[in-house]
Amino acid sequence: MALSNDIVLRPRFKLEIPRPNESILKDFETAKNTQKEFIVTRIDDHVFIKFPKVQQHFWSPQLHLEINKVDENSSRLHGLFGPNPTVWTLFMFLHFLVAGIFIAFAIWTYTNWSLKKSYAIQISVTLLMVLIWIVLYFAGSIGKASSTKEMRLLNNFMNNVLKID
């Protein structure tokens, strides 16, 4: 699995596993109780793997796995690397806030331009929102890049539990 995609801030992957999903989920339950490196949480067909609180920082990744039954002898695993959901929600809120301000000021700029009124402040704020959006994107990219080593540790743990080379 490649983690080098530069555009996607939350890398996803999919695996076909020739084992029943309950067997895989039981392996994660066993791993939860036999190791202390990661916190493993299971809710139905979902498994969340993250680092203990003392090892976490703002951009610490977690791995969300959804293990679906395909038939009696095979399963499909959907994986998603991402930051803590609270951090991701804040990050998305900031993106939507910037987008909303951008749209409002772009409309206000166009209106003033159409009415042949001064629109310097409005266009300045509109351009500032573009700059802030770029900064947010690069902050997310830097956060992802700083977490690559941790994502590999999570991935290796998952592969060890699944007995994948």
UniProtKB/TrEMBL annotation:
<feature type="transmembrane region" description="Helical">
    <location>
        <begin position="119"/>
        <end position="139"/>
    </location>
</feature>
<keyword id="KW-1133">Transmembrane helix</keyword>
<protein>
    <recommendedName>
        <fullName>GTP-binding protein</fullName>
    </recommendedName>
</protein>
<keyword id="KW-0812">Transmembrane</keyword>
<keyword id="KW-0472">Membrane</keyword>
<feature type="transmembrane region" description="Helical">
    <location>
        <begin position="86"/>
        <end position="107"/>
    </location>
</feature>
